[in-house]
Amino acid sequence: MVGSGTRRSVKKSRGGCTRCKAQHLKCDEKKPGCGRCERLGITCPGYSQSLRWSTKHEVNSWRVDRLAAAAAASASASASSPTSPEQTDLQIPAQNGGLEWLDFSYGPSMENEVGLASPIGDNHLFGIDNLHDWTPNDLLLVPEENTSLTPLMPHQPSSALDQPMLKSLGPRRSRPQTSGGAIPKALAHQPSDLLSYYFQVMPRVYSTFDSHKNPFRTAVSDLFSHSLAVNLAAQSMAAAFLSEVHPRFAAIGAKLRREALQVIQSKPSNDYDVLLALMMCGPTGNWHQTSDLGLAAYKEMRSRLHALSASEHQPPNLPFFQEGMLHWEMILSYAADSNLLGPGFKYRPAIPRHAKHEAHPWTGVGHQTAQIVADIGRLVRRQRLSSREQQFVTQAYIRQMSQDLDTARELEQRLLACEHPDESDIVPTEDAATPAWHIRAIAELNRYAGLLQLYRVFPDLLTERPQAEDATDPTASEENNATLVDLTNLSSPLHTDSRRNQWLTRFSLEALRILETIPAESGTKDFQPFIIVALASELVCETVPPQQQDTTAAVSSAFAEVAMMRKFVIDRLTAFLRLIPPKPIRACLDIIRDTWRRIDAGECDVYWLDVMIQNGWTTIMA
């Protein structure tokens, strides 16, 4: 039996190099560098001991300043070094606490998770199949406690998309590689509060759904410790969202985005991480500055994708980026002139017959619709600018107008002929906040939005369609019958501006009733602002004689319906101010309110695109 001798004491050191402490490993504290770092062939970060102020009993207001200061240190790292951005270590603060006020629930600290990240390998397109050390409790999946906070609508059957007016139209009918070069050691060993915030919020904003199929969560989590471009792009997005909390984030976010684009420009290769970073920071310029359309990034992406599609060895993830370009061009086509965008981007994914449709994070299941709506945007913007600049009627102008009308007819037929898969034919998103019917509804709403642009700018298209509002139910009242328009009966055309405007208002109401069924917290929220502006601009309240303005007779059921739908539009966009980056949403609110103000003041043929251009409110509505 062992005697009760004195137990040998073990010296506990609170020293050790930063890397060993971050990975909870024993450090021999050799000078100038520890033995473990020497064995690994890496530079030892040293033995400075970090002291952390306890905030347990303090109010939370100062933490915003602390986060801003930490992010500023990260953003200024490359500026303080004479080397290129790709060779610069990001000096990300090394405190282990992160943003306590955000209530993270992703499991281990960012210090541990950065060390566990591995290259993307074969995990391309929508998911990461081989996650190695990652677990469902880490950054890859949305925490259940977060998704449970999202109020969800009950499952909506297919009949929820009641579309009598739209239906009445009917048709006339090798492994990817990460970017080259040495990876800054700071990326793999230091945490970042902005990166933490990115994973907390941004994947649910930047994709129509958030699950392991969301590349803006899975691929970014696998790449941010290896790719400086992805790292900077993710931080810039997080800073842009936080700019409402503290103005310092505005400058930080803009600088991080510029640095990300510089890194991308310095890489001629079209590796997965470079394209993903370009997809992240390219369309988000309006998050930092409302009028920033990111045209340079758009052209860069187009050029790289054209080069890849023309190559003999196309990467398997190319279709993901090509389909994403369809949405990018759609939201740009209403904000930028056609000569700046170049020819329309064309892509048609190959879907095997009888195969289920996999939703894309941006286009959902409406890639064809997005492409047509983009073409409509190019056409109507060019036509509106031309009408503003044309002072005299010439033969050339008349010929161009005739060609534009023919193009509009063709686009109308193509848009009406688009087929969207049924809910049962869509692969589940595995996101409780975004069931498959949300994805299909957004595709249908984009169709509504595109048709409304054609019918507003080219009213002859609607006039050419035979109308018979009384044919469906001759005994019904005019107000009730106004919701059903039979465009197949050959009785009377829409030949007056008043009847045409009434039809457009009812068509808009039909679409917005579909949007009402989708909760504001749906994963499709960042893909709704353009739809809302395009539809809400046709919410025209009926006029009454001046002597009846202050009487109850002025409030008919039709007037009340339009007024209540206007309130829904304002409420939905106001809710988006806290759910998605707010700067473009404020522009959307300004456009809608000024459009309604002009309509209510008695102006004729008010069009939201004219209002946006005249007031200088041009932005990407996403």
From TrEMBL:
Keywords of the record: Nucleus
Predominant location category: nucleus
Segments of this protein annotated with the region Disordered: 148-185
Cellular localization per UniProt: Nucleus
Alphabetized GO MF terms: DNA-binding transcription factor activity, RNA polymerase II-specific; transcription cis-regulatory region binding; zinc ion binding
Span of domain Zn(2)-C6 fungal-type: 16-44
UniProt-listed CDD domains: GAL4 (cd00067)
Polar residues biased stretches: 148-161
Keyword Nucleus annotated: yes
SUPFAM superfamilies xrefs: Zn2/Cys6 DNA-binding domain
BP GO annotations: positive regulation of transcription by RNA polymerase II
Gene Ontology cellular component annotations, sorted alphabetically: nucleus
Name of the molecule in the record: Arginine metabolism regulation II
Organism of origin: Lecanosticta acicola
